[in-house]
Amino acid sequence: MITNDIAPCGIACIHCELNENSGLTQVWERVAKAYGKTVDEIKCKGCRLQDGCVLTEDCRTLSCVKAHGVDFCSECGNFPCENLQPSADGAERLPHNLKVYNLCLMKKLGAEKFLKEDRRNRLRYFTGKMVIGAGPQLEK
Fold first, then answer.
1. Percent of all residues in the chain with a pLDDT value above 90, rounded to a whole number
2. Which of 15, 105, 127 is nearest to 138 (CA)?
């Protein structure tokens, strides 16, 4: 089921570095150490399949979509809400500022087409150079 591949907040679980299928052992080890967990505790199946995030005890966003009976935040009448507000803190290493963009793109394209574009969008976010008026651009 494709909804298991995408978190309710719009982060593509299957493209996440912590995903159990990513094979990124060095990332798992670094994150496990930073969060005081084991590598096995850090490997993620996706928040829907494991009913939460490996990095926190409680995911307010997951609880919220369940309470509202929707699959994704963008299907909620309160979208966007403060749970999705971007933050500069950690933006250089975490994809949390992509959430609203991802949800809007998914609403426009559908979940399957969104997943096909997500890797490029993550690359633009983390390695692109911001061009005022044009957004992040990848060097050619």
1. 51
2. 127
Amino acid at 117: E
Longest dimension (CA), the chain: 45
Rg of the chain over Cα atoms, rounded to whole angstroms, equals: 15
What is the rounded distance in angstroms from the CA atom of residue 38 to the CA atom of residue 31? Answer: 9
Alpha-helix runs per DSSP H in the chain: 25-35, 39-42, 47-50, 60-68, 99-109, 111-127
Place of tokens 């995408």: 6
Is the separation of the CB atoms in 117 and 109 below 8 Å?
yes
Cα angle, residue 54 at apex, residues 37 and 72 outer, rounded to 5°: 170
Mean pLDDT across the stretch 19-26?
Answer: 91
Instruction: Find the mean pLDDT for residues 106-115.
Output: 92
- Is 135 strand, coil or helix? strand
